[in-house]
Amino acid sequence: MKKKRAVKTGVDILMTLCLLFMMGYQFWDGAAHEWAGAGMFLLFIVHHVLNRGWYKSLFRGKYTAVRLFQAVTDIFLLAAMLCLMVSGVTLSSHVFRFLPIHGGMSAA
Questions:
Q1: What pLDDT sits at residue 76?
Q2: What share of the chain is helix, strand, coil (3-state, %, to 5)?
Q3: pTM, full prediction
Q4: Residue 51: CA atoms inside 13 Å, Cβ hemisphere, count?
Q5: Which of 35, 40, 48, 49 could connect to 18 by a Cys-Cys bridge, CB 3.0–4.6 Å?
Q6: Dist. CA 61–CA 69, nearest whole Å
Q7: Tens-digit pLDDT profile for the chain (108 aa)?
Q8: How far apart are CA 17 and CA 23, in angstroms?
Q9: Among 40, 19, 22, 26, which Cα is nearest to 85's?
């Protein structure tokens, strides 16, 4: 396996593990959930940097029904993840408390 492919796979596995950990919110305290979310945020950025070719090929080639469905699904998933990250930073009471964000639930 090439080194870049191994790094991509490792990042994807770590993102999956973070997601599974964060779904068990009732088992962990809020600080652990927030730190896992901050790690997921960093892994999300690394994932998109490593897969920047997806953005380059977005407007290339012919769009079949399957490709269109996959692209729309990916774009909606990207938007959902960005919204989750913004709301997570807004609601943070441990990791991002240094940010001057006020409003809590209503701002998120």
A1: 96
A2: 75, 0, 25
A3: 0.76
A4: 16
A5: 40
A6: 15
A7: 699 899 999 999 999 999 899 888 888 888 888 889 899 999 999 999 998 988 888 888 899 999 999 999 999 999 998 998 888 888 887 788 787 776 666 655
A8: 10
A9: 40
Residue with tokens 């240094």: 98
Total domains, the chain = 1
The predicted pLDDT at position 95 comes to 80
Q: What is the C-alpha separation between 17 and 67, in angstroms, rounded?
A: 28
Six token digits for residue 67 = 């490709």
Its domain, for residue 11, covers: 3-107
Whether 94 and 35 have beta carbons less than 8 Å apart is answered as yes
Is the CB of residue 39 less than 8 Å from the CB of residue 18?
yes
Which helix or strand (DSSP H or E) is residue 37 part of? helix 30-50
Residue 36 neighbours by CB distance under 10 Å: 21
